[in-house]
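Notebook, student rotation project (T.W.).
Task set for the rotation: take a protein with a known small-molecule partner, predict the structure of the complex, and write up what can be learned from the model alone. Partner molecule chosen: zinc ion. Sequence and SMILES entered below by T.W., checked by me.
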Amino acid sequence: MNDGSSGEFAVERRSPEETFALLGDDTRIGILRALGETPDDARSFSDLRERVGTEDSGRFNYHLRKLVGSFVRKTDDGYELTYAGRQIVGAMYAGTYTANASVDAIAVPGECPLCDGPLEAAYAEETATLSCRECEEWFNEFSFPPGSLDQFDADELPLAFDRWMSHVVDGVLDGFCHICAGRTTGLLVLDDDDRPFATYPAHVEFTCGRCGGSVRTAPVTPAFMHPGTRGFLFEHGFDVSELPSWAVWSAIDLPEVAVVSRDPPRVEVTVTAGDERLVATVDADASVSDVHRVGQ
Ligand SMILES: [Zn+2]
Ligand SMILES: [Zn+2]
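Predicted structure of the complex:
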């Protein structure tokens, strides 16, 4: 918030109607694509016009000028994408607005951490799922950009989905919405009856204050993302930045979650690896306030 107490900053907002209307033209999309090919280098007017392939210099200039100030910036070296311009080009690559894809269920090597059943990965309607074919308890569902699919062979997709899920959760735990970059707020919710995650007595939710986007996961997730836990697992031979999450979960005892306070809600997550245990405390705002190891 800019309350004037420490360092002034100004944010100028334009209407989305006006800004997105600028994109309804092939030449302008061509300009953004051409600048997106070398996002770190500015391009001269003539170079850019040649790349886009517009003969009429006056017409090209008209369209380029429409984009300057929103998606394109003019510098001493030429034209380059603004942050918003990069986001538009990124969205075109990710296929968020343009691609439609589905992937039939793929068998995932490994087994369900909860019931040892077979796992599968699938993709439809821009949503990836990683789930167990036998129990309904191991079930992960999340958005995955369709334009990213064809960068992977089918047998690479389960790990790609898992990495993406971890990447999204990591960003959300750091306080940024994965959809709009708004600020997220975490909440630890105690579940007395309906237990959505692996019969744990609580779950965590992160909600964006701007777009309402949210992520729900087990309280084990913030505990696992904590550097103390990652180090603990690494020392026991599990590099969580390399191994798929189901492989780590299968290799260790299922983490335990105990409610230690109801008001405010607080849980302790116990992770056991080898002959050592680690206890992480998850607070009411879904942050991890303490991580310590306990002797057997
Ligand atoms: Zn299962
Ligand atoms: Zn948001």
